Write the structure tokens for this entry.
Amino acid sequence: MTTRLLITGASGFIGSRVAAEARRRPDVRVRLLSRQAPPGPGHVRGDLAVPPSLRGACAGIDVLVHCASRIGGDPGTAAAVNDHGTRALVEEAVRAGVRRIVYVSTAAVHGRGPFRGVGPAEAPIAPASPTSRSRAAAERHVLDAGGLVLRPHLVYGEGDRWVIPGLVRLMDALSATLTGCDALQSMIDVGTLARAVVAASLSPRYAAGAHHVNHPEPVLATDLVGAVCTEVARPSDDARVDVATALQRAAGSRQALHHLGMLTVDHWFADDAFWKDLDCPPGEGFAAGFARAAPWYRSYFGNRTAP
């Protein structure tokens, strides 16, 4: 039996991999929603910031996989896309009789932590930024409609322009390698996340509720920094700074402080049952996944180091 999927955000980092994974399934027909959709049966035009444009987008669809999000920008735009746009899209899906709604959200809806081995029901919803607040609102629309919310934390891999690039820019700002980072971070490579999203979209086991979707083994921040320095971009000299010194040097940079917080505060979100119940192996851990992605990162940064 063929399942008809409508995927939003297919031009983005995560959505593009979800779309590619779905298209590999012989029993799945994929339709993509975008603001600039080309003509053809596999595409439909719609803009989350313009709710009337979504009318009819879900006609004939079995599963809506919502990967689109506005990240950053002014709070009004984030709310228009993530909150109001998602509400309109969910209403359209319900009107069209879509049997399952899946939203790829973020563990950032829980706030800044610390979190150590907490499950989806154990961490409060306490977003700390306008973007995260709007995505938490989007989750509520999906959950109220009986949908499924998936919350990855740090997603890395080919196409990532935030997690690993942010760490490289942090070390550039510090002109040194950071030491003394013992926080644990939940991470997942984008290919594994895409497999999980598609599997959850099709699995009879998962229809409603929220789940953390990360590799079961958290990553020690020291190992993350070490991998970036070894595989991607080492600071020009071998200077090292501790966390206290790094905080002083980064005081004027909001992004640098954000990534420092990421390295120094536990963000370990547990949900091992998700992988077991889904019968979708989480794959190799961070070391192997990052090694595969390293050539892309080196190219992105202009091959600044040759491991």
